[in-house]
What we know:
CATH architecture of the largest domain in chain B: 3-Layer(aba) Sandwich
Number of helices of chain A: 17
Radius of gyration of chain A: 31 Å
Largest sheet of chain B: 6 strands, mixed
Distance between the termini of chain A: 31 Å
Strand content of chain A: 5-15%
Largest sheet of chain A: 4 strands, mixed
CATH class of the largest domain in chain B: Alpha Beta
Number of domains of chain A: 2
Oligomer: heterodimer
Distance between the termini of chain B: 34 Å
Number of helices of chain B: 9
Shape of chain A: elongated
Strand order of the largest sheet of chain B: 6-7-8-3-9-10
Strand order of the largest sheet of chain A: 2-1-3-4
Low-confidence stretches of chain B: none
Low-confidence stretches of chain A: 257-276
Helix content of chain B: 25-40%
Shape of chain B: globular
Number of strands of chain A: 6
CATH superfamily of the largest domain in chain B: P-loop containing nucleotide triphosphate hydrolases
Order of helices and strands of chain A: HHEEHEHEHHEEHHHHHHHHHHH
Order of helices and strands of chain B: EEEHEEEHHHEHEHEEHEEEHEH
Radius of gyration of chain B: 24 Å
Helix content of chain A: 55-70%
Mean pLDDT of chain A: 78
Strand content of chain B: 25-35%
Structural class of chain B: alpha/beta
Amino acid sequence: MTIVGKKSFIVMTLLIPFLIILVGCIPVLLAYINNTADTSVTRIALIDETGSYGSAFKNTDNFHFVPLLGDSVVDAHEFYKNAGESLDAVMVIPKDVLDGQRATIYSENTIDNATINYLTQCLNDTLASAKIASFNDPELQEKIEQSQVDAEIKSIKWDEKGDEQEQSAEIASILGMILSFLTYTFVLSYGAMIMNSVVEEKTNRIVEVIVSSCKPMELMMGKIIGVGLVGLTQFAIWVLLLGLGGVVLSIFGLSTVGAASPDMGAMTAGINANVPDNSDIASIISAVTSINYVSLLGNFVIYFIGGYLLYASLFAGFGSAVDQASDSSQFTMPIILIMIIALYAGIACIENPSGPMAVWCSIIPFTSPIVMMVRLPFDVPWWQMLLSIVLLYLTALGCIWISARIYRTGILLYGKKRSLKEVIRWVK
Amino acid sequence: MNFIDVNSVVKQYDGHLALDHVDLHVPQGCIYGLLGPNGAGKTSLIRIINRITHADSGTVLLNGREMVQGDIANIGYLPEERGLYKKLKVGDEIVYLARLKGMPKRLAVSEMEKWLKRFDLTEWRNRKVEELSKGMQQKVQFITTVIHRPQLLIFDEPFSGFDPVNAEQLKREIIQLRNEGATILFSTHNMASVEEICEKITLINHSRVVLEGRVDDIKQSHKENLFAVTVAGGEQVKACPNLFDVVPGGEHQGTLIKLNQGVSLRDAIAWLNDNYTLTGITEQLPSMNEIFIETVQSNA
Lengths: 428, 300
């Protein structure tokens, strides 16, 4: 229980939610920086051999175009060199661009993706219009526009009373993924913490003093339960802080979006169709709120405790067989391997959370604490849930029993490196 | 009245017989030596008395009744392999281990302060254990063993790692604890300390008890009719084939003689007085060290 007293532990407990929020904000910040801070201008000379597409390339804040007629420049490279610093690249639009659908950009510098994307987009739009025009059908343009479909399937979930609630598979998936990562990191880091503590007590020999004051089983379970409660407390603090952070951020974030970007509002006013309107945001919010967080959290805690007991007891049992901290890897490897398999199974199951792999892996006790997290936000049949929980806890009890037998022998045996085979014999 | 009665205890590990029908009877208030070469089974026996492991067969009685788990609060154990939580502060460590033995916190703290003062460690109370010298750590370990005033103390090599001054202090403390009523089981290879403080011993070799009894009695029973003789003028005594032989070596003054079988001391003294001016004659009892080596080797 000395862990809790450590300053580093307290600091980490309080800091990690902020770190998570910060990490969550980074993409937004980066996008913001990317959009506002980029004032550099790329100057591109257009050698338009067709003489008709030059106008398709509109100047923007970041791109300036200098249209030139095809025959006025004989050697693009020569022209580029003569222009010196005033030019970044030369783009050549060949005569057969409509059929070949290909243009070329030359530069002595590497052209970045943003530039290529912008140029491609401009070229595509203008070539498409030219093609349509080449069919000489005045109604064609209209027909094409009318046949542009942007279908959307709204997912509505009936609750018990028959009320409708919007839900979103993506949000459920993301939530599932977060929960399964949380379980994985929690179980792994607390398991490792237990193992280290067992190895430490054994290598500095205090374990002999301790077990002359209490039973080895009591010592092991005390450790597992103690660290487990630390973990749950830490988790509760995180949930609380993250919840608070989320509330603060949403109030702060929404008001800043509303206030700080009037230009965005002006922009969206013009092309209303392409921008998520209020109903989209509302549906996201509705989907986020439609998830039953109480049952989700409850199930998370049930699976977390089961998975933790299972793996922590294994870590404790095998930790007791270790003679030096540096030898521990031969025993931790198999455990960590199983956990990594579970994590990958969880990731794979996101695509199809009701498929056979997801179902099996969420019932097999060694993978269920992690894989079931992915399935939780979707509805899981009650019998699968029950079977999985019962199996998980039975297996956890079995692991505790096995580990206790390894532990009581292991902690008092010094001096020799133990093989896995030998350790398994202690169980008998 | 015996405080501990170990009756015919057998313990087997993985095909190796660690204890073969071992008996041990430690009287109340006795400093009792548990001797034996490495690997003889001493630690196995101590762990059974401590209830860290259990005997395959046989019984361990405490105060005449079968031991129960609760009795371990009444035992203080100083293992040979010392160990403390290195990152804990000295005071916290002592209090933590005392409370593990069931001591109330307030009492544990006041006892801790008393013991730290006794060992001159008061100023180290808030330092981490890892900052202490090895000798000081040993003292802390000793305090954690005795702080809850157990009726039974088990010391495994208590003097290893102590300088002579500190070893002397430790010896005084052990005798003091005995005088206050504790029974002390004392496992060691240090035969000099056995002779100094143990009243009775049991010698285990190859998982069996090979020698048991009062230290004085054992010495008497192992005596070999050796006498150190000093005569006037510091002369060397010559052997007398009918009565005694001269034995070389020894750290005593004068000449070491060994009486022949059946010769009485009186006859030898008479002969010595006739031939020399006898100034002194003392019986040489074997040391526990010699008895240990002899017994273990004859058992090999």
